[in-house]
Structures are given as structure tokens and as C-alpha cells.
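One-letter codes give the sequence; the fold follows as C-alpha cells. Both lines appear below.
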Amino acid sequence: MKDQDQIYRDLQKDLNQQPVGFPATKSGSEIRLLKRFFNPGEARVAMTLSHRPRPLREIYEDVREKGIAFGEVRNTQNAMANKGVIGEIEEELYETIMARKKGTFGKVKLAAKLMLQR
């Protein structure tokens, strides 16, 4: 595996730990898919997200030790939200993760209202 692919492999492993999962494949198609949705900087930040809403400040606390500035986190989150790979709920962000469904990959957006009612 190329060194530059490692960030995507790490993201794949992280997503695979989420409730919907994102398993590795023999063909590596999951890495190609992640590269289409995330640049390397976005992938680093995406690994700190989960399927539950979290305030931006809390997300920043998780990435601060990696040397990422608050403004960079905010800009990265906004860029990912604009692309539709994460969503925003009143200043809180939730992850849109890719799910393997009947042999195809499709976006699975978590129902924000249900999550906020818990």
C-alpha cells in the first residue's frame, strides 16, 4: 500500500467501527471511494467524528493535539458539509457515512431528529 493511502485505510478502519460499518475489500474499492469523498486533511478530521452529533469545540479538542488549528477544523467541517459527506445540525455536526447495501455503496444519512430526541 502506498504511504499516501494509509490515511484512507485508517479512515476505513475507523468507519468500520461505526454502527453501519465500512469493511475492507480485496479490490481496495473502499479506498478509491474514500478518496473521492475526502482529501487527506478531511480524512484526518473525519476520523474524529462519529454518528452522534458533537459540537465543533469538542471535535477540535480531539484534533488539537495533531497540530490542527480551530479555524482549519471549522473550514474543513464546512467543506465536508458542503460536499454532503457530513451534515450540520444547529452548529453541531454529524457524520454521513457510507454503507454497503445489497452489493452497492450508498449514502446513509442518520436521522437527526431521532438523534436529538434521545
The chain has a mean pLDDT of 76. The chain has one domain: 3-117. The chain has six helices and five strands.
